[in-house]
Design brief:
Keywords: FAD, Flavoprotein. Residues 36-217 form the FAD-binding PCMH-type domain. The chain is an alpha+beta fold. It has helices at 2-13, 22-25, 49-62, 116-125, 142-147, 155-158, 193-197, 231-245, 257-266, 295-308, 321-332, 334-341, 356-370, 399-419, 435-441, 444-457, and strands at residues 18-19, 42-44, 65-69, 87-91, 98-102, 107-111, 128-129, 165-171, 177-180, 206-213, 215-216, 220-228, 249-256, 280-288, 314-317, 344-345, 348-350, 375-381, 386-392. Among the domains are: 2-91, 2-Layer Sandwich (Uridine Diphospho-n-acetylenolpyruvylglucosamine Reductase, domain 2), CATH 3.30.43.10; 98-216, Uridine Diphospho-n-acetylenolpyruvylglucosamine Reductase, domain 3; 220-335, Alpha-Beta Plaits. Strands 12, 13, 14, 15, 16, 17, 18 and 19 form an eight-stranded antiparallel β-sheet that branches. It binds flavin-adenine dinucleotide, (2R)-2-hydroxypentanedioic acid and zinc ion. Flavin-adenine dinucleotide binds at residues 32, 67-75, 78-79, 92, 112, 134-136, 140-141, 143-145, 147-148, 150-152, 201-202, 206-207, 335, 427-428, 431, 464, 467.
Length: 475
């Protein structure tokens, strides 16, 4: 059966685009964090939307499921198949064409496999700006960004991927294609199908193309690295900078001192602009589409204000683009530093911004009581109420002991999140990592409706099985 399917897939996408050799498949079968390893009958690399549709039809007939994959940078195992091997990985990376840039309508139409950085560059070449920005931008794709409703470091000003998208093209499980590539800012003709696919993590259809919103290119930027005592101080600073700078505030990234220590330990070519590692730090960035030479002065005035009010300990304002990049390097190096430090129980929570300090105090206390010595390493998009609350094993314990306690710690963190009416996945999706927790923290009516939608779009369970939705058979 699999041999027949492979031959059929080769007829659709070309023999060299169906990988069956174990070594060739290997990079597609393991996630970025090295937490999951799966198996697949083949990795299939279509070159266009029609090919995607034909591959889906062939897999459906053969009873083989399909795991869509873009840049394979998922933080929740969303793009990794299970170990059974009764799936193909559908890699969209050959579909990397920028189809159209419209500087009048301020839109760009792209294939789903275009790498995010290439979209940013194409926007720049047209004198425009595409604001989604995250550490994996050199390898993640627009399809993956859409399927996870990615956030990143500029959500405060520009919103998540959902808010940056006007239209979609989607191949359905039955092999039909929906051309929803409308470049319209206004379209109130019924239910928004587009919004169903954003954040659906490959479980409802394969996104093959998208119309994205473009923005005026920022002409001025001002960036500061600020040291502070704690999260409460960071929240006070956020309120002050917002008051003084309005929507020029583009990024407000929070990093604890313990987290900075890991970056300094594991990432080359980084330098802290202070003599000592502070208890906490914030990377603040303002931007303006006017060539506003007063932007730096505005940021400085906000920080002087905050220093006088004893909200901040110290601040360094970047003297040019090179220093700004070096501040960002400290922020963007965090995920890599965490991987190098060892196993972590990763959490990507959001709570109402005003509750963030209380959340951290309560979560830290409960974690310390349950597992003394476990190290909370925190950072995140504080302006969005989004915290990456990572727990690293105590220095004197081994991986096996930590693996045993990790689910208990996750329960503590997620229960505290729920108490604050927060979300257990702010931006990384559910994937396979958080499927069990979906049943625990989502209302039964939401789960029931989500399963009903899945049954409409993918009645045979062809698409990304085991991801996002918990099995409802025992409910
Ligand atoms: P993949 O990892 O390949 O896939 C992600 C999910 O989307 C999977 O469920 C997959 O099945 C599905 N999928 C992929 N393509 C399609 C498609 N065409 N149609 C349907 N489904 C599809 N995320 C944030 O939100 N903010 C961050 O700041 C951030 N920073 C990161 C930093 C690093 C260093 C890394 C490794 C990851 C980071 N991520 C972040 C997580 C990740 O979600 C994003 O990198 C990105 O959105 C995933 O894109 P991808 O192309 O790699 O998708
Ligand atoms: C970030 O904000 C990403 O850098 C990754 O969302 C978070 O590694 C993580 O926990
Ligand atoms: Zn993040």
């Amino acid at each position: 059966m699999v041999t027949t399917l492979v031959a059929r897939l080769a007829a659709i996408v070309g023999e060299k685009n169906v990988l069956v050799d174990e070594a060739a498949k290997a990079p597609f079968l393991q996630d970025w964090l090295g937490k999951y390893r799966g198996a697949a009958a083949a990795v299939v690399r279509p070159g266009g939307t029609d090919e995607v549709a034909s591959v889906l039809a062939a897999c459906r007939e053969a009873g083989i499921s399909v795991v869509p994959q873009g840049g394979n940078t998922s933080m929740s195992g969303g793009a990794t198949p299970d170990p059974a091997g009764r799936a193909i990985v559908l890699s969209l990376t050959r579909m990397n064409r920028i189809r159209d840039v419209d500087p009048v309508g301020n839109t760009m139409t792209v294939d789903a496999g275009v790498v995010l950085a290439a979209v940013q560059e194409a926007a720049k070449a047209a004198g425009r700006f595409f604001p989604l920005s995250l550490g994996a931008e050199g390898s993640c794709t627009i399809g993956g960004n859409l399927a996870t409703n990615a956030g990143g470091v500029a959500v405060l000003r520009y919103g998540t991927m959902r808010e940056l998208t006007l239209g979609l093209e989607v191949a359905f499980a039955d092999g039909r294609v929906w051309d929803g590539l409308k470049a319209l800012r206004k379209d109130n003709t019924g239910y928004s199908l587009r919004d169903l696919f954003v954040g659906s993590e490959g479980t409802l259809g394969i996104i093959t193309g998208a119309v994205l919103k473009l923005f005026p290119e920022p002409k001025a930027r001002a960036t500061a690295f600020v040291s502070l005592r704690d999260t409460s101080a960071a929240l006070s600073l956020l309120a002050r900078v917002r008051e003084r700078c309005g929507d020029r505030l583009t990024a407000f990234e929070f990093i604890t001192g313990d987290c900075l220590t890991l970056v300094l330990r594991h990432v080359g070519d980084v330098r802290l602009p202070f003599t000592q590692v502070p208890p906490a730090a914030v990377l603040v960035e303002l931007s303006d589409s006017d060539d506003d030479s007063a932007l730096g002065a505005r940021l400085e005035a906000s920080l002087v204000d905050a220093a006088e009010a004893e909200i901040i300990l110290d601040a360094a304002i970047a003297q040019g683009a090179t220093q700004a990049r070096s501040f960002w390097r400290l922020r963007e190096g965090i995920s890599e530093a965490l991987v190098r430090e060892g196993r972590a129980a990763k959490h990507d929570v959001s709570v109402p911004v005003a509750q963030m300090a209380d959340f951290i105090v309560a979560a830290d206390a409960a974690v310390a009581a349950a597992a003394p010595g476990v190290r909370p390493i925190m950072f995140g998009h504080l302006g969005d109420g989004n915290l990456h609350y990572n727990l690293l094993k105590a220095e004197n314990t081994n991986d096996a002991d930590f693996a045993a306690v990790a689910p208990v710690l996750t329960r503590i963190v997620h229960d505290e999140t729920a108490r604050c009416r927060g979300s257990i996945s702010a931006e990384h999706g559910i994937g396979q990592l958080r499927v069990a927790d979906m049943s625990r923290y989502k209302a039964p009516i939401e789960l029931e409706l989500m399963n009903a939608l899945k049954a409409v779009f993918d009645p045979t369970g062809l698409l990304n099985p085991g991801k996002l939705l918990p099995d409802m058979s025992n409910h």
